[in-house]
Amino acid sequence: MKQWLCVLLTLLCVSLLSPGAQADMPLNMTQGVTEISGKVYHLHMIILYICCAIGLVVFGVMIYAMINHRKSKGAVASQFHESTKVEIAWTLIPFLILILMAIPATKTLIAMEDPSDADLTVKITGSQWKWHYSYFGEDIDFFSILATPRSQIEGQEAKGEHYLLEVDKPLVLPINRKVRFLMTSDDVIHSWWVPAFAVKKDANPGFINEAWTRVDKPGIYRGQCAELCGKDHGFMPIVVKVLAEDEFDAWMAEQKQAAATAAEEAQAALSETMSHDEAMALGEQIYMARCAACHQPNGAGLQGVFPALKGSAIAIGPIAAHLDIVIHGKTGTAMQAFGKQITAKELAAVVTYERNAWGNNTGDTVQAADVNNHGQ
Ligand code: HEC
Ligand SMILES: [Cu+2]
């Protein structure tokens, strides 16, 4: 019996503690790709070793006592009370162990909490259910939205390799530069979590939290929202593409160029007239990507939470009121202001779509200029 226990305990220790097992054991925490994530990993391992040692001692003594001092062997319990020595020992020893654990933990925490001297600052805003990235002082900002097709989510198609962990536009960062993150939210509490960077920070409405990272290795890193934030909490992944420094600079220049072109195009779109079919096609695309999560692909909404647009008084009533709620949102509800999120042309298209889909047969075609005149 005793031998068996020894073998079992030894096996357990070997499998937990051997470095080989750690390296490819998917159950363990990732070592990540930053200095901090390495520190966090080592801290985690130190604490795990201490816990294992305590566990071995406590369970060892307990099992030894159960086996060797059992009643059938004629053991008689000793009766003693208020042993000052034992009481001091069982207070002092855990206290010392805690202090011992607090030293490396504090060091790591302090390092994690120091976002000073950053080379780049990115503001991260969570909202139901997407991330918005804005590069400070660089005039670059964009939304990052789940890119997994609905057909995979609904099971009509096999799930891809990065199912629910892929986005249309990833956050792009350089290696070897200190990046400071400012996190906030437009609605409820979200949490921006990328395990490979050991960054996990709440994004709270009305507050700004800070975090930082400096990535050592180029690559694509994935994460998720880590704070239950509503129906599509599991559908707002994070993808970070980390580039070599020169590639990053090139990307940045390209983004600025693209932003300038997009601004010109948006200006040009104001004088264009979309055909009804063109508006419906673009509108459906925008609707599925931006609105369907709440109002549902069939426009029926979710009773008591998200209103139906099929037959809704706003969607088949005057255009101005319809434009108004889509552009400005409705404060205090999950209906966001889309005026700054998508272009006038896209707004016109999605409103056209809502006014003519699912049997909403208004026949209206809204143009970018109408959106602009309404006040985007
Ligand atoms: C995060 C969830 C969410 C998303 C995404 C969303 N909406 Fe809404 N929407 C709401 C809620 C909630 C309301 C109800 C607001 C209220 O209480 O009046 C609403 C109301 C509306 C209404 C008024 C309907 C009525 O009859 O009262 C329209 C029109 C509308 N949304 C259009 C859109 C469009 C267009 C999009 C995409 C560009 C969109 N919504 C995306 C949550 C959402
Ligand atoms: Cu979230």
TrEMBL record:
<dbReference type="GO" id="GO:0004129">
    <property type="term" value="F:cytochrome-c oxidase activity"/>
</dbReference>
<protein>
    <recommendedName>
        <fullName>Cytochrome c oxidase subunit 2</fullName>
        <ecNumber>7.1.1.9</ecNumber>
    </recommendedName>
</protein>
<dbReference type="InterPro" id="IPR036257">
    <property type="entry name" value="Cyt_c_oxidase_su2_TM_sf"/>
</dbReference>
<comment type="function">
    <text>Subunits I and II form the functional core of the enzyme complex. Electrons originating in cytochrome c are transferred via heme a and Cu(A) to the binuclear center formed by heme a3 and Cu(B).</text>
</comment>
<feature type="signal peptide">
    <location>
        <begin position="1"/>
        <end position="23"/>
    </location>
</feature>
<keyword id="KW-1278">Translocase</keyword>
<keyword id="KW-0560">Oxidoreductase</keyword>
<keyword id="KW-0472">Membrane</keyword>
<keyword id="KW-0349">Heme</keyword>
<dbReference type="GO" id="GO:0016491">
    <property type="term" value="F:oxidoreductase activity"/>
</dbReference>
<dbReference type="InterPro" id="IPR036909">
    <property type="entry name" value="Cyt_c-like_dom_sf"/>
</dbReference>
<keyword id="KW-0813">Transport</keyword>
<dbReference type="GO" id="GO:0005886">
    <property type="term" value="C:plasma membrane"/>
</dbReference>
<feature type="transmembrane region" description="Helical">
    <location>
        <begin position="47"/>
        <end position="67"/>
    </location>
</feature>
<comment type="similarity">
    <text>Belongs to the cytochrome c oxidase subunit 2 family.</text>
</comment>
<feature type="domain" description="Cytochrome c">
    <location>
        <begin position="278"/>
        <end position="358"/>
    </location>
</feature>
<dbReference type="InterPro" id="IPR045187">
    <property type="entry name" value="CcO_II"/>
</dbReference>
<dbReference type="Pfam" id="PF13442">
    <property type="entry name" value="Cytochrome_CBB3"/>
</dbReference>
<feature type="domain" description="Cytochrome oxidase subunit II copper A binding">
    <location>
        <begin position="117"/>
        <end position="254"/>
    </location>
</feature>
<keyword id="KW-0186">Copper</keyword>
<keyword id="KW-0732">Signal</keyword>
<dbReference type="Pfam" id="PF00116">
    <property type="entry name" value="COX2"/>
</dbReference>
<dbReference type="GO" id="GO:0020037">
    <property type="term" value="F:heme binding"/>
</dbReference>
<dbReference type="InterPro" id="IPR014222">
    <property type="entry name" value="Cyt_c_oxidase_su2"/>
</dbReference>
<keyword id="KW-0479">Metal-binding</keyword>
<keyword id="KW-0679">Respiratory chain</keyword>
<keyword id="KW-0249">Electron transport</keyword>
<dbReference type="InterPro" id="IPR011759">
    <property type="entry name" value="Cyt_c_oxidase_su2_TM_dom"/>
</dbReference>
<keyword id="KW-0408">Iron</keyword>
<dbReference type="InterPro" id="IPR009056">
    <property type="entry name" value="Cyt_c-like_dom"/>
</dbReference>
<dbReference type="GO" id="GO:0005507">
    <property type="term" value="F:copper ion binding"/>
</dbReference>
<keyword id="KW-1133">Transmembrane helix</keyword>
<dbReference type="InterPro" id="IPR008972">
    <property type="entry name" value="Cupredoxin"/>
</dbReference>
<dbReference type="InterPro" id="IPR002429">
    <property type="entry name" value="CcO_II-like_C"/>
</dbReference>
<feature type="transmembrane region" description="Helical">
    <location>
        <begin position="88"/>
        <end position="106"/>
    </location>
</feature>
<keyword id="KW-0812">Transmembrane</keyword>
<dbReference type="Pfam" id="PF02790">
    <property type="entry name" value="COX2_TM"/>
</dbReference>
<dbReference type="GO" id="GO:0042773">
    <property type="term" value="P:ATP synthesis coupled electron transport"/>
</dbReference>
<dbReference type="InterPro" id="IPR001505">
    <property type="entry name" value="Copper_CuA"/>
</dbReference>
<feature type="domain" description="Cytochrome oxidase subunit II transmembrane region profile">
    <location>
        <begin position="21"/>
        <end position="116"/>
    </location>
</feature>
